[in-house]
What does this fold into?
Amino acid sequence: MAILDLRKKVVKHMDHGSKPTNAPLHNLTAAVDLVHLRYAVAAADYGSFRRAAEALLIRQSKLSRCVRQLEERIGMIIFDRSSGGARATQAGRDFLRTARAILEQMDTLLASAHSTGRGEAGRVAIGFYTSLSAGNLRATLVDYAKRFPQIEVGMMERSRTRLATALRNGAIDLAIVTGGTPLIGSKMIPLWNERVLLALPEGHRLAESETIFWTDLKGETLLVSRHDPGPEIQELLLTKLTSPEHRPKAVCQTASWGNVNSLVGAGFGVSLVTESDVGANLSGLIYRELRDGTGPSCVRYSAHWRTDNDNPALASFLKMLGERYPSPAV
It folds into this structure.
């Protein structure tokens, strides 16, 4: 479906005066190499052919040549080039949006095909985006390995969106994420709660208190990751501090949790974490519990799986989850 959409987008922009291509429409898809799509997406993400080539560990000339070939094959100018870098055109942005979807679907397809092609019975694939350094997920996996040593456990760390895609496509059997809203086309059971903690640099004024209230964050610089569960943590902040004047200054970082908290340790601000993250034990950080008038603030984790998944290894894992985290909903 995404490939068909890509062909439609190309034809649409050709009709509006883009550079024509001599390739017949039925050969258009075959002429587009997935590697070329990856190079174009990387160039857009880094805003520069040079930086994209460095990240991909290839020569800039190769990346530039492949992107030019892609433009010639589809009959569309994807990038405006300048000494300052490469910027996607309006038509290019539409094209790249669909290209990303195609690459994600292909990655999920290959992951699923690899798992199926190995033909190994007794394997369960679990998707997550919480920390494995400590906490309930780590303890659950250790318990499962002891009780079912013959079952291979595969782990996939991705964002909520990519985990939902992997679950629908069968690349994973189970997704463990925060929140209580079922993923599309799946069943859900609630698992555990984790307290929300404030990560502070050593010597911070709030480090003297064992318990910190949300209103104490006024005037602070709060570093938030754009990656999961950063957006949900930020939403929790908005819920606890409804008045903008009481909120800290939120600064979003396109970085992992570990790198965000490295910035905290360096004195660039504070951040919000969950209990399982504390197991990473980063130097220079102090953790304090966050409370409001009702007590500690928590986030809920839940497990999601497809109802048509008949993998016996998944069934045993779900049974163990039900025993470890009993709930009226189970």
User: Anything to note?
Assistant: The mean pLDDT is 81.
